[in-house]
Specification:
With about 400 residues, the chain is mostly helical. The chain has 20 helices and no strands. Helix 3 packs antiparallel against helix 4, helix 8 runs antiparallel to helix 9 and helix 16 runs antiparallel to helix 17.
Amino acid sequence: MYRCQSKSSASISSYTRAQEIYNRIDDEEGVANALCGLGKAHRVQSKHAKAETCYMRAQEIYDRACNPAGQANALCGLGEVYHCQSRYPDAISSFARAQEIYNRINNDEGVANALCALGKVYRSQSKYTDAEASYVGAQEIYNRIRNSAGEANAHCGLGEVYHCQFKHSDTISSYTRAQAISTRIGNDEGEANALYGLGKAYCRQLKLTDAASFYTRAQEIYHRICNPAGQADTLRGLGELYHCQFKPSEAISSYTLAQEIYSRILNLAGQADALCGLGEVHHCQFRYSKDMSSRARVLYNSIGSDPGQPSDAISCYSQARGLYTIIRNDEGEANALYGMGKAYCRQFKLTDAAAVYTRAQEIYHSMCNAAGQANVLCGLGEVYHCQFKYSEAISSYTQAREIYTRIGHDE
């Protein structure tokens, strides 16, 4: 219950007490179970080093106790931690080992869960073919064993893969099927997740009225089931929607409220994501109307910035980068650097722009994120264009186009 309500500190306290009791009565398997619970609670708070330690200790105990199911579960927990840190090879290794164990002990649901997790990692690497294959494999298993909740989750994963490839009809179809399944079985959280996905899909197509409707319905469900992380995610989506509608005051208010929720539940990654959203708003429009919300003004005061200054975008992206660095989220850091590059380029600080773009490119390359590399190449093309380096600009844009074509980013 604590975990569902994102009361992570209380959750940690409970699991710690449970671990102490199990230790006292020499129940090793109980200790391992408590460690897995602690690992998940620490991961929610972005305390990845502590989470990794908990899962590794649990895995050792399960291995010693000849409990393969527990060992596989701990490996899946480790994989989640590595994924949060953008340590994709480690994440894939952990999930693949878990899948092998689940296969060996004929645990179909475990196999499907591991495949869904692998799909998520592959999507982060822009390996969309592998991601789609993983989710489809998981969906088939869930369907065979009549696990409707898992099937809906796999459909949501497929929706995200198609969303990344700008396959709008496939995206909407997948999320709609996920919503229908979740509604049928009374899974409120699953329904809200699907509605959130539909909101993103319609926002991408600039069908903003539809997007707002889906986001609002998702927000209502997340609020009713006391899921603050879901509420914050939806507020972030609304921030993007308002940004698309050229409503900077509303966008800033939504992103700021999302950031406050993420801060309250100790979700550093979410805080950083919200800051990146704020940075994008500032990047696109440096001046705002005088009726800016008081909540937005509180944020500006907290970061020592005036809403009319061009440095706002860079300030937000810099803070986001700092948070991503703390939690060792390489992809997030690269995204923040990419945003900084756009902001510097807007101010014609072309040397600074080239420097941060180059650093972002190095990170994206190291983690095999093709989409990120292509975005940065477009940014560098703009820098070179502004510097009248036309051959370099053409080369960058050409490389970006080739990557986009290869990974299916038709737009």
